[in-house]
From TrEMBL:
Name of this protein: DUF4352 domain-containing protein
UniProtKB keywords: Membrane, Transmembrane, Transmembrane helix
Membrane-spanning intervals of the chain: 6-32
Highest rank taxon of the organism: Bacteria
Length: 131
């Protein structure tokens, strides 16, 4: 082979190697960007679709309402770190459904309610101070 042909083949091999390396780098960065974008999308969908439990006090009733978009199952309700509504464990609250707990809370100066609940995918905990 002539020196010109050898030089041409060497330059072609270098160009192909550099092109391959650049292609692999671009491919890996786009995969990482797609992966992070998918994680953000899943987080947004989960936040939109999750149950949100709102707790209010109306006269002597404690009103627990699911204002979210999916079903919630109550794991426990604790009032002032001591009292527990055990009959509510395992109770299912559908979206926009409210539960009324009849109890007289007028003798309590402080009213802190902790509710543990879960959806199909995740467990949540809310602590609400009503007084």
């Amino acid at each position: 082979m002539t020196p010109f042909n050898e030089l041409t083949l060497a330059i072609s091999a270098i160009v192909l190697a550099v092109t391959g390396i650049v292609g692999v780098i671009l491919l890996s960065t786009s995969i990482f960007k797609i992966n992070s974008s998918m994680k953000k999308t899943v987080d947004v969908i989960e936040k939109y679709q999750r149950p949100y439990i709102a707790i209010n006090l109306k006269k002597t009733n404690l009103v627990i309402k699911n204002t979210g978009k999916s079903q919630a199952t109550i794991d426990s309700i604790v009032i002032n770190d001591t009292d527990e509504f055990e009959d509510m464990d395992g109770k299912v609250i559908n979206p926009e459904q409210a539960l009324h707990l009849k109890n007289d809370f007028t003798d309590q100066d402080e009213l802190i309610i902790e509710i543990n609940y879960h959806s199909e995918n995740k467990a949540y905990k809310e602590t609400v101070s009503l007084r």
